[in-house]
Structures are given as C-alpha cells and as structure tokens.
User: Which sequence fits this backbone?
C-alpha cells in the first residue's frame, strides 16, 4: 500500500490491542479507536509500521490494517 505522511487513514479491521507511539510504548485496549474513526499518518516507523494520530492519541499500526481515505471526503 502506498501511504505517506499526512495521509488520512482508518482501520480496515479491529485490532486486538493498540500500541502507543510514546518513547516507552504501552499496550492499550482496542476500544480507544472506533471502526469509523479517521486518523492522520504522522510518521513511517518501518517497512510496514506507521504512527497514526487518532482522537485518543498516537498509535503504531501495521500498514496492512489501514485503508487510505480519499482527501475529498
């Protein structure tokens, strides 16, 4: 998938847990992000991991669990 910094994304499937993007990451419950919530890509952390800013914080999410949202929406 072609995701870059600044893209708007949402989850394709619910995650079993969320990993925070803090200097000392913590595991958080998955209900902090709703299925229809839109987040913004803040940074690329690896080949298939991105840091996404949602309403309740910044989380590390695998790219295969995200879908890009059209910018016109």
Assistant:
């Amino acid at each position: 998938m072609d995701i870059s910094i600044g893209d708007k994304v949402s989850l394709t499937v619910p995650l079993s847990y969320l990993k925070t993007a803090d200097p000392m990451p913590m595991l958080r419950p998955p209900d902090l992000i709703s299925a229809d919530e839109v987040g913004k890509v803040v940074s690329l952390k690896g080949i298939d991991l991105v840091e996404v800013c949602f309403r309740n914080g910044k989380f590390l999410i695998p790219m295969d669990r995200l879908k890009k949202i059209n910018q016109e929406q």
The mean pLDDT is 92.
